[in-house]
Amino acid sequence: MRRTPRLAALARAALARAALAGAALALAAGVAGCGSQAAALPAPRVQHAAAAGGLPGLAAQAAAVERLAQRGRPVYCGGGRRRLVALTFDDGPGPRTAALLRELRRGNARATFFLVGRRIAEHPSWPARQRERGALGTHTMTHPHLLDLSPAAASAEIADGRAAAIAAAGTPVDLFRPPYGGRDGALDREIRHQGMAQILWSVNSTDSRRNPPRDFHRTVAARVTRLARPGSIILLHENRTHTIRALRSILPALSRRHLRPVTVPELLAADPPSAARLERGARGCG
To answer: Most buried of the four, 120, 122, 146, 162, by CB within 10 Å?
Structure first.
């Protein structure tokens, strides 16, 4: 697999920091087992505020992600027992990231951002700022169809994308989403081997449509509002103008339905999927 010199240098630098980040995550998980959060991972102020708002703290979130990573099964939704949903945004960072973060702040909403390594190289300052509004995951290095690659190339895409995100954000990154949702048993095993939880979705906003009509933001907002339910993981993209506009309707609509937007780790810690729901995959989400 060919890489530009800039991306290769970024990946090499990040890999040197990945071991330290992994050690920090292990410490957080260990603290969770002792019933204390005193040594939890350093995090922005908003993450501590979220923990004070009736959600599990960072150590519990790290432990929940680790448990699901060890299971090795894709996660499509939470348990559906609490009125929580996870808004997720793929393909960033990019020129519309600032607008997205403004809308989330206005709506007092938290989210999860699945970042692409080559876009981190173009916008290196954004991942740390996105972390302040939620959680980060990796979406590979160059956003290929992983099923079209050799096993070695797919493994490198996953590892290099994660390393780039860790380098830019300065924190562990243990959530992975495959581009286009493409996965099979071999990829599931590789993601588990790399120690990440694979996060898919139960609600597809369809906001990735090419050449949408002018009022497409209304369609996106109506679809998300109609399909969202407790435990939903909602697929959105941060590089679409109509997605930003749709959020102006989505966030108030979720609030009216008493559905609280949280990060994926918060959802998995507060309302994890049951073993039966996890086994059934997308069908288990209703």
So the answer is: 162
On whether the CB atoms of residues 75 and 278 are closer than 8 A, the answer is yes
Q: Judge whether 96 and 240 are in contact, CB under 8 Å.
A: yes
Hey, where are the domains in the chain?
A: 5-280
Buried b (16+ CB within 10 A) or exposed e, 54-84: ebbbbbbbbbbbbebbebebbbbbbbbebeb
Question: Does residue 50 surpass a pLDDT of 60?
Answer: no
- CA-based end-to-end distance of the chain: 39
pLDDT tens digits, one per residue of 135-188: 999 999 999 999 999 999 999 999 999 999 999 999 999 999 999 999 999 999
Q: Please give the CATH number for the structural domain made up of 5-280.
A: 3.20.20.370
Confidence bin at 51 (pLDDT 50/70/90): low
